[in-house]
Amino acid sequence: MSKKKQQIWNGNVRDAALSILLAVDKNQAYSNLLLHQTIEKYKIDAKDRSLLTEMTYGTLQHKLTLDYYLEPFIRGKVDLWVRWLLRLSLYQMEYLTRIPAHAAVNEAVEIAKRRGHQGIASMVNGILRSILRQGVPSTAAIQNPVERLSVETSHPQWLVERWVESYGFEETAAMLHENNIPPVQTVRVNTTRATVEEVLASLEAEGVKAQQSDMMPECIHLTNGTAARTTAFKKGLITIQDESSMLPANVLNAQPGMKVLDMCAAPGGKTTHIAEKMANEGSILAMDLHPHKLDLIDENTARLGLDIVQTAPVDGRKAAEFLAKESYDAVLVDAPCSGLGVMRRKPDIKYTKREEDLESLQTIQLAILDNAVQVLKPGGRLVYSTCTVDKRENEGTVEAFVSAHPEMEREEITNLPEKLLAKQNNGMLQVFPQDFGSDGFFVASFRKKGETI
Ligand SMILES: C[S@@+](CC[C@H](N)C(=O)[O-])C[C@H]1O[C@@H](n2cnc3c(N)ncnc32)[C@H](O)[C@@H]1O
């Protein structure tokens, strides 16, 4: 084994989790990508894979709570890697009941010896054993309810305050708790190639337990296995996608033969869904600002056997300079957003996003929407979506958009199951993670005034 390999994976799950946590912290690496790369590169087996995933995500998810618990036991400054080791170990002791606490402590001490020296190992041992004896401090001591919620659910206080102000305490508390629960694996059936029943049978034949969602008919929930390793995936019968991300193509409801534009398309999750809804008949132009991401769209369309999609590297803020005016039947703007709805999958978002980051997004989104209007045919539908939960970003963009564009009207969303439609408000639908166990997501529908298509 090379020296580099030993640093990340030496067969020890806790060591690997620690390396990933450190890389996420130091290099602002994305936890989901790094975890995936580590698993693929070192071909980590199923048992270690699930423990590694659980420990890495769990520790990150609960970071602020773990820090609150550790606070009274740490004297002076400790190195970053030691702090992460303590968090990782305490996570196991507090949240992973199947791991005996003394085993977590012993492992931590061994890692501290290997990575540091006997002195650090003794300190780690002392801190963790004191916690075992005394227990962690109660959050009941925190007077301010918003601060307490922030600590208990490990979300930054500015965000908790912002959400409480927008959605109220109860809804926010439910969302914060849901954000710490790992998401169910969901896939979308490529309806141009297979039925839901055929895919279920294929998955079952490989020992994957799955069932059709009672929300989106083309969605399947997996209870075990890894979707990307199944025959159904390799044959292009399914796409791995969160159920909320299946909303925009349904709301857009593009018909076979239409000319459709997807302005922020990479990696193509929604482009391919739209193509499937169109029965692979018509045309879709899938654009993205970043040329290198277009390859991902091409890979996905090739795997799924969808040939009506063309890709182009275009800045959506200038799209109307390159495309024929009023020439598209339907346009999707799945905008670059703050991503606050996907914390279950990307817990690092909780700690890296800053409040000021949120403000600039509306300007970009409005500029892309403005170009969408110019290339949309009269009577055509425009759908705006984000994977975020933020009133100012979502509803705020919609308000600013409709007041700047009298030629656009809000449109009632119709093409969704009743329980989703019941949640819409004035052509807008905000899904919270706790609603259906899917990602936090926002979708809004508009029609350009003029003749009907
Ligand atoms: C939410 S993601 C899109 C996900 C995609 N629709 C899917 O379902 O797979 C937003 C995308 O917008 C792209 N983007 C960011 N700024 C853009 C711009 N000015 N014009 C076009 N695309 C942009 C990003 O590269 C990113 O791929």
Automatic annotation (TrEMBL):
Catalysis: reaction(s): cytidine(967) in 16S rRNA + S-adenosyl-L-methionine = 5-methylcytidine(967) in 16S rRNA + S-adenosyl-L-homocysteine + H(+)
Domain SAM-dependent MTase RsmB/NOP-type: 175-449
Keywords noted in UniProt: Cytoplasm, Methyltransferase, RNA-binding, rRNA processing, S-adenosyl-L-methionine, Transferase
GO annotation, cellular component aspect: cytoplasm
Record PROSITE patterns: SAM_MT_RSMB_NOP
CDD domains given in the database record: AdoMet_MTases
Binding site for S-adenosyl-L-methionine: C264, A265, A266, P267, G268, G269, K270, D288, D315, D334
GO molecular function list: RNA binding; rRNA methyltransferase activity
GO biological process, one term: regulation of DNA-templated transcription
The keyword RNA-binding appears for this protein: yes
Source species, domain of life: Bacteria
Active site: C387 (nucleophile)
Principal location listed in the UniProt entry: cytoplasm
Compartments in which it is found: Cytoplasm
EC number, as in UniProt: 2.1.1.176
SUPFAM superfamilies with a match to the protein in the record: NusB-like, S-adenosyl-L-methionine-dependent methyltransferases
NCBIfam families the UniProt entry points to: nop2p (TIGR00446), PRK14902.1 (NF011494), rsmB (TIGR00563)
Function: Specifically methylates the cytosine at position 967 (m5C967) of 16S rRNA.
Similarity annotation: Belongs to the class I-like SAM-binding methyltransferase superfamily. RsmB/NOP family.
The name this protein goes by in its record: 16S rRNA (cytosine(967)-C(5))-methyltransferase
Organism: Lysinibacillus odysseyi 34hs-1 = NBRC 100172
